[in-house]
Specification:
By secondary structure, the protein is an alpha+beta fold. It contains four helices and twelve strands. About 5% of the residues have low confidence.
């Protein structure tokens, strides 16, 4: 079949708002045994800053390829409150930043294409936490700006989400969920994937230097 001719995929979703941080997440780096840290050796057009994740990083269209054991990379600049809403208007697209990502994607392709065939390696997100469906909804918007302190920093919350109802706001740093330590965004998503919609969770976070707690009931992602 046609899938047998596909060596790998690169999926870019939510890559239209780079300007605020310059941060670009390259996920899925662990889905081929030949990739890994070698992907950090590629030139990146300034002022773009690429962070590599070995995780599958998100539930986007590339998941269909991972399920067929095809290595897949995922480009992502962070969620935002306008996602899937009429308020996501063309004037909010960072044209220059998107162009830089297109340049970087071309660099990726020129580097990766001659280095096939690849050996598929199931990324971490495909083990342990999968429960079918679309999983629980927390509703935070990640902040990919580099920070020295450990934790999962958020740049806001989605309207009507459990995170918003729990009082979380931009700049908060989540450090624990149900007594489980959160070192970064990947630790956070790893914990959330083990939970179910309707679960009640205790979230410990810092607002500035003040330690706070919030009790949230996870929603259902649809």
């Amino acid at each position: 079949g046609a899938l047998e001719e596909v060596d790998f995929t690169i999926n870019g979703e939510l890559v239209g708002r780079v300007a605020d941080s310059g941060q670009l997440l390259l996920g899925g780096g662990g889905s081929a045994t030949q990739w890994g840290d070698s992907l950090t050796n590629l030139p990146v057009p300034a002022p773009l800053v690429v962070t590599l994740s070995l995780d599958g990083a998100g539930r986007s269209d590339h998941i269909s390829f991972l399920s067929q054991e095809i290595p897949s990379l995922f480009l992502f600049t962070g969620a935002h409150g306008d996602y899937h809403k009429p308020s996501d208007t063309p004037d909010k697209v960072d044209i220059e930043g998107t162009y830089l990502i297109a340049q970087y994607t071309e660099t990726l392709l020129w580097y990766l294409a001659p280095r096939v065939p690849l050996t598929f390696n199931a990324p971490p997100q495909r083990t342990g936490g999968a429960r079918g469906g679309y999983g629980p909804w927390f509703g935070s918007i990640p902040d990919f700006t580099p920070h020295e302190e450990p934790g999962y920093w958020i740049s806001g919350t989605s309207p009507g989400s459990p995170a918003e109802r729990g009082g979380l706001v931009a700049g908060d740093r989540i450090v624990e969920i149900d007594d489980r330590s959160v070192e970064d965004i990947y630790g956070f998503t790893g914990i959330i994937r083990t939970l179910r919609p309707g679960d009640e969770v205790m979230v410990v976070f810092f607002r500035g230097k003040e330690r706070r707690e919030a009790l949230l009931v996870l929603g259902r992602r649809e």
